Here is the input.
Amino acid sequence: MTAPTPPFRDPRLPFAKRVDDLMSRLTLDEKTAFLHQFAPAVERLGIAAFRTGQEALHGVAWMGPATVFPQAVGLGATWNQDLVRRVGEAVSREARAMRARDERVGLNVWSPTVNLLRHPLWGRNEEGYSEDPKLTSAIATAYTRGLRGDDPVYWRTAPVLKHWLAHNNETARDTSSSSVRPRVLHEYDLRAFRETVEAGAVAGVMPAYNLVNGRPNHLSPHLGLHLRTWTEEDLLVCSDAGAPSNLVDSEHYFDTHEEATAAALRAGVDSFTDHGTDSSKIVARVRGALEQGLLTEADVDAAVRRQLSVRFRLGEFDPEHDPYAKERDFDTPEHRALAREAAEQAVVLLKNDGVLPLDPGTRVAVVGLLADECKLDWYSGTLIHRSTPLEGLYERFGADRVSFAEGVDRVRLRTADGTFLHVLPSDDIPDGARAAEGALDPALLAGRTDLPPLTTDATGTELALIDWGEGVLTLRAPDGRYLSVAEDGYVRASADQPGGWVVQETFRLEPHENRHLLRHTGTGRPVQVAADGVKVAADDADAEVFGLTVAERGEDAVRRVASAADVVVVIAGNDPHINGRETEDRTTLRLPGQQERLLRAARAANPATVLALVSAYPYAVDAGTLPAVLWTAHGGQAAGTALARVLAGDVSPAGRLPQTWYADDADLPDLLDYDVIGGRQTYLYFEGTPLFPFGHGLSYASFGYADLAAEVGDGTVSVSFTVTNTGEVAADEVAQLYVRAEAPSVPRPRRELLAHRRFTLAPGTSTRVAFDVPLSALAFWDVAHGRWRLEPGPYALLVGASSEDVRLSTTLTLDGEPAAPRPVGEHGLEAADFDEQSGTEIVDRTKAAGDAVTPAAGGTGELLYRSCDFGTGATTTTLSVAGTGTVEMALDGGAWTPALSPSAPAAGPYDYTELDGAFTAGGVHDLRIRLRGSLRLAHVGFSG
Here is the structure.
């Protein structure tokens, strides 16, 4: 007789019942093993091994050749949800197709990144979509819908959002704490996650490395308080790589890994990404936590259940019913066309005095360090197709009308004995592009050792020197390979591009006795010349001292071609692996010095100089003397073709800036200042003059806006207006709707994006654009009462082509809930619910939940709480504090009360005590509190 089909194999049953059945059949040891990223097979039940995590930020990454789309910030610049949904769909189809031939390819994809681009110096700026939560959630929702697929039951892939929460710095990223006040938390950082999760195509989130309010994100109480309340779906929380161990090893938040693992699991982490493919350490920690009573089997079950829910949705247990099981679309003509369309739509025209588009017969000089490059980033796949700006312009204008100068400095390095570094020929060595074969962890890929190391001879080899800024150099041999250092320590011309987790292709020339040490940045060691070849030395005592012989300055080559052209196109920007990337923040908005010199040389030789920035982030450039400026993120496989088509006018540019471009470093807040309200950050609050504003982007057409209508009804604001193409070419326009509270009781945004739409119009045609915006979108987080509140009063509705280019406006007066004073006489107040502060930071009240406030760096800080209602009167205050220091209080602008301080030092930062003191107040007043020392204030009560 045939054995009965177990219920977990029955596709007629709901997933929840099937998960229940499977859970009942698994042993505790089997469930515990599922908690690691690499969950093993359970052969007795016919359950396959499963891996959480597959990078797919703008194409399937790390698994070999795949279609490479523009970087995420470039997709954000399209402002086009339909396009981004189609990109997500193509990426998920390729993931399915690649998995069919390589089971290492996962379907639980770790993308998109919805961290807001609050600070343009963040090294991972390329991974996010925008500084604005509304735009970020719109683009992220589109991408996740494409990744998920449209089947009502089964998912093509299961997207995980990164990185929960308030994560915008690589500097000390695993030990720094983001101080996030409640208004910023709810109005800014949570919003992008919330609206994307509520859209219904998200399978989970990944916590970030950093801490928020003193507590590691892998212990975030907001996973339960907020995230899992936004959807009825089971959400899988996957740790970031190595983060579980950081709780003990770098953050020292717990003494033992058993405590740390238990706390993370109870907080809501379901899958632990730690120690690569070796699950033994995590499994041992979970077992230890169970034995010590730190965890229960129910805690384990909750996490495993969420993982199994995702696996069922992916069709793992129903291959015959999974509509995506036979998906084989890979590198199709449609995907190639989509990659080009996305790259074209991502181009932003920042300035144009009429030099663009280029006439068909134009003689073009293409110059710059990125002119003949198609750069990839850490989360890219391996290119199948490739186009550089130079190749695109050759194709579009003809090689006879395009000249080229890269602008590198061509140098030879002379040793102390008068010989020069020499690259031995390697013509017979086969290519070995790094990561072409795919790797679950490309950080483990080693450099090549099959090529001969450098030597010295009497003439040497002329090397192309590029200074990427801050003294970081690359050196390239004539055959195009970059000097690199492999594990054996020898220097070879072996790399196709700089790359890797630790970049082995960068060096510094350090002044030394009128010459230079050549220091390898990856190892931190200087280069020496040994009998068996050039290698890194053990220490500076063995280092070679080099002289630098310059054969040609890059500026000279640029001047030469620029002076003979009609128009010069300078291609400038960054290498995504150098000076601004994961693990490394930028230090300035300025272009690297070498690229600024090349730009000046081109401009001096030919006033008709166009600057095309190809970069992962904004720059502060002197655009005033340039007739045209464009920006695009690294655009993937079709980047060069797309840029050439925009320059030629085959496509009218319609990308829009997804973040503010500041004019100067002085406009930026501190990298670790996460208070976008108090720090007046992003277009929402910035009061200065940006270089280019949020939402900015020009076109080869012109557009007129007219007939604005707005009305309130049934919980929504309905806004409509007409847009007409008044130009001579067909083009896309991006209409944007903003709001501004005209008489707010608290600081509100200068303007805030409510909706947008990208559409195409032929010359002379018009379209009616309509938006229905829920009134809840105009609310703010009322810290006095801990909830959202729509304030009554006038609101300006602003319609236009950018946050600053407003074409139409009207004002509506809305009903709402009037402000009410804080009921402090009845409930007291939470210290973190301040209206304003200076010199303080928010920290963790306990390791599990809650906030407290403390002076920054043990100094002095002040808190302001407006409109506090003390009722019929208070005579006593009770303060919940920990640590050492003093507290003083004052009403309105009055005198400070005598300082209160604990009578004895607390045993630790979480050992709270209550301080009682005399305090007389009645009615409604503003309350000020001054803190000194290392005191933590959690709560203030009043009685009397």
Summary: Residues 883 and 909 are 6 Å apart (CA to CA).
